[in-house]
Fold these 4 entries.
Entry 1:
Amino acid sequence: MDAKVTTVNLGGVNCYLAECADGFVLIDTGFSLKRARLLKALQKAGCKPGNLHFALITHGDSDHAGNAAFLQREYRAPIGMHLDDVGMVEHGDMNWNRKPKADKMSPIMKIVGTMVRLVAKEKFETFKPDVAVADGFDLSNYGLNAKVVHIPGHSKGSIGVLMDNGNLYCGDFLYTTPGMNFVDDMQARNASLAKLKKLPIKEVFPGHGKPTQSVR
């Protein structure tokens, strides 16, 4: 039976709450400034301390990892992410392990990036992840029929979550909002794109924007 997945929109950032047999798995956590909205969505779904089995971070940017430390502490939820992005959340530095100049960045993303850095500097609560996930990491131990796909490009440690039903939750690897684009490493992104095109993906759920049935 497929997990019920609810999209939680936190000011333009999509988090995804998957309801499993006896609890929940959260994909991304949003900005700390939007915590009240996240908590309202968790409460509505019946997610509370003790039944949030896992919070998975698709990459280390503060708009996706901003509530991770809170959930780790207050919900007793283990936090998982790829090792290549761990320095971002441990040091509160969203440029950690990225190129000095991104290979591709739209004008809108330059503005957004500046705003994110300002917010992160003042609000981001650093943390140490509990679980290091890598390509092929099986989420069934947390009640979710899905596996992790390592898709570097936006960041070195960017990951996606591919459900057994073919739905892919891909963080910022793909944007469906016009004018939004940030690629740290184009060569890595192209390799990740080729990798995704070989997988049985039916629908893509990005970190920003609406779902799409195309991987491009």
Entry 2:
Amino acid sequence: MTVTIGRRELLAALGGAAAAWPLAAWAQQSGGIRRIGVLTNLASDDPESQARIGAFLQGLQEFGWAIGRNVRVEYRWVTDAASISRHATELVALSPDVILANANPSVWALQRATRTVPIVFVAATEPVGSGLVESMARPGGNATGFASAEFGTSVKWLELLKEIAPGATRAAVLQDPPSGGASQFAAIQAVAGSFGVALSSLAVSDVGEIERSVAAFARASNGGLIVTRGALTITHRDLIVKLAAQHRLPAVYPLRLFVTAGGLISYGPDIVDQYRRAAGYVDRILKGEKPADLPVQLPTKYELVVNLKTAKALGLDIPASVLARADEVIE
């Protein structure tokens, strides 16, 4: 379905600020109104969606693009994996000038539908290894954008688990293999021995597997949970957070949105910042540059977020050294 933006005040604020721009800015494209497609893997009313799209629209505004004046945005919100291909095909059929896509599954679906329409991706995992681009410096095809993180940062999750739960001798890594979970697991596995932790891989593909895998792991003591980045884990973050609480598992998450949903602690790239930066690439493409010539960029901002309410419920005292490093503490 086609949706504009659900939060009226967001559009009102952007529209008001847009009106202050000089007319010449709106007329920068002689071809009239340009069209941008957006394919994202969160629901339209998800607060994280609102934050991400809001940052993107504000970024566009800074380059002189105003909704309804010189640019139109078509949205497709993907809340289940089965609908990605359909939504991607619908967007391509609208003949947009460029498409903004979130994460690997969305980009794969778009590249199956077109090899000519430019694609700017955000939060992509292993862009070269997963086939999204030919190289980071010279993407080569019709896609470029922003990678979610280097796999070496996955090691940080295990470090955090040991800091907040020193008694943990077992760790389960919940992963979504199609979204790069296997590579994230491999990075953690390489250092698990040095932390004195026995690692278990929980590769899941649906809600039932998530529930069964976490419950089975939690039967033994001294365990902790690490959740990797992936379309499945993000979509079902509320369930994963609930299971961690239910089984009293200290859990480390890859993104802030898990912690705002009630999770314990997260470390990962600031995806909202990537949406803001993506507006710059969209602007350059609308002005004639090609995705093939725009290098894929790594995150410039990482954030550590702690939920003290959840820590208290689990009977954990978060070390002062962790709190001192935190970018955000939820109480």
Entry 3:
Amino acid sequence: MFIRWLIGITFIYASYHKIVEPAHFAKIIYGYYLFPECIINLTAIILPYLELLSGVALILGIYPRSALLILESMLFIFIVALSINLIRGHNFDCGCFSFGERGYGYSVLGLLVRDVIYFILGLQSLFFNKHRKWCILQSGCILKNI
């Protein structure tokens, strides 16, 4: 329960400035140099609302496994994007919690470590249940509970 709240609140908080300043967020997405220009504006508009709705659903317990699966998918994509830019040696604002021009000021490696920790916590919450040891080992468990 604590992990769900932690991840939900984090994504709700992260979505706020992206919703308020979609143009700034679009510039940040462009700075990744990974995505086609034609989808950047649409991504900058849709992604924050997906973060917000999934975070709220996770906290309120509305289809929590589905919300967590969406957030875990986003975290995986963030990890891949950060890893590619780390390998390139490109230091940039990830857009996660940045307000203003300078951003949060973390190194790309620090951001990557943070996202991997959140990802592992989310996997733990997704696949472990206090009533069952490994939810995935029980037939149909994932599909029934999503």
Entry 4:
Amino acid sequence: MRLLAAAVTALLLSTGAGPSPTSVTLCDLIREPERYNGAHVIVRATWKHWFEISQLYCLDCNDKGRVWLEFSDDLARASRRALKSGPNEGVVNLTVDGVFRSGGGFGHLAGYQYKFTAAKVSNVALVVKGLAGPDVTEKAEKQWACGGTTPK
């Protein structure tokens, strides 16, 4: 049943059919996961990625659960270009358009409670390039990450 629902969602996203996506905050998603489970949404958040990490987060609700970010196989060319404008590893702010899932067991070692599958990506903005030390990363996040003092 889940496989069928995922296939229908992917088909609707790729054909442009179905209801328009809802713009919400990432914190809204993880504070009310049952309300948004399976929903097509647009979110502006921060993405930390390297090696076996692909975490979508906002500082305001980082303690409410971890969101694994993955990209659909048919990610549009413009979205691929947007991702390439950021670092191969690091922390960026971005806008993702896709489907939110709750229920746990997602991502590396099934360590994430939520999953966001992005069909579109835009507005990529650098927060930290590469694997900076924890002090550098934390300082940059406090200023620039989703929920920071100067979000971009």
